[in-house]
Amino acid sequence: MGTTSSDSSIGTTTSDGTVVTDPTPSREGPGSTVRTLQHILLQKGDDKICALAAITLQKLVTQPVVWAEEHLLFPEPRIRSWVSGGARRARGAEQGRALVESMRDLHKSSVLGSKHGSLMSWRPQYRSSKFRNVYGKVASREHCFDGIPITKNVHDNHFCAVNARFLAIVTESAGGGSFLVIPLEQTGRIEPNYPKVCGHQGNVLDIKWNPFIENIIASCSEDTSVRIWEIPEGGLKRNMTEAVLELYGHSRRVGLVEWHPTTNNILFSAGYDYKVLIWNLDIGEPVKMIDCHTDVILCMSFNTDGSLLATTCKDKKLRVVEPRSGRVLQEASCKNHRVNRVVFLGSTKRLLTTGVSRWNTRQIALWDQEDLSMPLIEEEIDGLSGLLFPFYDADTHMLYLAGKGDGNIRYYEIGSEKPYLSYLMEFRSPAPQKGLGVMPKHGLDVSACEVFRFYKLVTLKGLIEPISMIVPRRSETYQEDIYPMTPGTEPALTPDEWLSGVNRDPILMSLKEGYKKTSKIVFKAPVREKKSVVVNGIDLLENVPPRTENELLRMFFRQQDEIRRLKDELSQKDIRIRQLQLELKNLRNSPKNN
Predict the structure, then answer these.
(1) Which of 67, 90, 314, 406 could form a disulfide with 295 if both were Cys (CB 3.0 to 4.6 A apart)?
(2) What is the CA radius of gyration of the chain?
(3) pLDDT value at 180 more than 50
């Protein structure tokens, strides 16, 4: 055996040049993280694990690291599990040794900040943020909504919508689609026979509340229709089957609906016919059509003033569209990042997309809305398969990522300079989520320093679970630094103004005095003249052909009843005809006529 010499930065080196690292690296402090990753890199083993460990090690050197009191949170969540598992037993890789040497050079130039040249003394650079300690608080069981038959539809939507007064959830039902509308104060167990909105003839795929009229909700369905419903003040007392407005314009099922963020009564709908229709509800007709997509539209998102619309499509393209003209301003072909969801990041002129990388790992990408040629950053999240739902809070500049099928919600802070995206913390729950509803800002509890609230759909339990994101503060006074002026409930434009080309920022409101209903806007359904297209004596608009199996069965049974009724009516008329013929014969043969 050769002699050995000690090297505090990477382990022990024997006389024949073999590097022996400590098999149980210290787990105390950020320096132990560097040593743990060195331990992985300097063992011979799987190149993929070593390469990802090298990426993480480089991030630890060049970017701040986020700490929790209990344990260290790595920038790459996948690395965390690999470090604690089989990755620690990996054998050496050449690129790891080269990286350690480069880290020594960085250290000598004081990047790591130690005059003795030891990597053990590396310390993270803390980034100041008022939201680094935000935590998630789950409501107690009595403040949840229990006993709800949540839909089992596999469509990638949230199936939930919430505002300051009502919670709406798409439910499982036979013979057409339906959804529940529950007042927020009516928590606890919901009765099985609770009234529903059940006018659709196919499964309901999406629902959205009007941001300016709190009792108006839009829904879309597999029956190709979009319907507008007006919920009574105290909630539903009986099943609602008649919508105040039915909108037909798509030739296939409608998967998405979105209200314009600053204009009242302008609604967007996206169908499986690859078209986006813009509806003016003042007249109940489509006024514009966006026809630039070549496949199914997966997501729609507006910028702050509603002058731009971002869409993701099944053709793997991200588009930024001018909605009134339908002109595509920017388009990205995402080869390394298969996009699913997109969200505008407030007034930062940036977009964030979630999707899947070429290695089938969940991934996010940040884009400049004026140049989609290359993403500003791409970050892999984890190796799970569920869809990532992004939510952005423009008031706090916080981004939330929630995975479909898992119970975790990660949150980040968005910055204007590199690295743009700073990891804050992660809310964890064992119960998987099917979708999430989000409370508008004016419905939050400002006295508890609540900055965001989710309504989590737990299908296995039939449960809707509120989750409050809270900034811990000792003072009970109003915290102006976390509650700036926020978009309110008053529209900034009328439909005619917006259609003429006017753009206007949303009207802001303060949350200091708490939310008070001040809007006096009332939805008035347009009175439309009945149109008809008659071919061979059949009104084609009145007798719309069936589009789903359920609708076909209902039409079949309806026609059977109609045939039975007509047969009875015909039989009665035959009897009446014979009676009249007999009377006529008797009249002719009477003596008076002779």
Answers:
(1) 314
(2) 31
(3) yes
In whole angstroms, how far apart are CA 449 and each of 144, 165, 207? 20, 20, 29
Cβ neighbours of residue 536 closer than 8 Å, sequence gap 6 or more: none
User: pLDDT tens-digit profile of 366-424?
Assistant: 999 999 999 999 999 888 888 999 999 999 999 999 999 999 999 999 988 888 999 99
Give yes or no for a contact between 465 and 431, defined as CB atoms under 8 angstroms apart. yes
Instruction: Evaluate if pTM is beyond 0.85.
Output: no
DSSP string, 464-476: EEEEEEE---S--
Structure tokens at 453: 């609230």
Contacts of residue 415, Cβ cutoff 8 Å, sequence gap at least 6? 397, 421, 422
User: How many angstroms separate the CA atoms of 526 and 258, rounded?
Assistant: 20
- Kind of pairing between the strands at 276-280 and 266-271: antiparallel
| Residue 454's pLDDT band (cuts 50, 70, 90) | very high
The residue length of the chain stands at 594
Strands 145-146 and 188-189: parallel
Angle between helices 47-62 and 94-108 (to 10 degrees): 10
Tokens of 159: 């199936």
- Which domains does the chain carry? 4-121 (no CATH), 135-509 (2.130.10.10)
Strands (E), 345-408: 350-357, 362-368, 377-382, 388-393, 398-403
* 303-344 pLDDT tens trace: 999 999 999 999 989 999 999 999 999 999 877 788 999 999
Q: How many CA atoms lie within 13 A of 589 on its CB side?
A: 6
Mean pLDDT of 44-54: 59
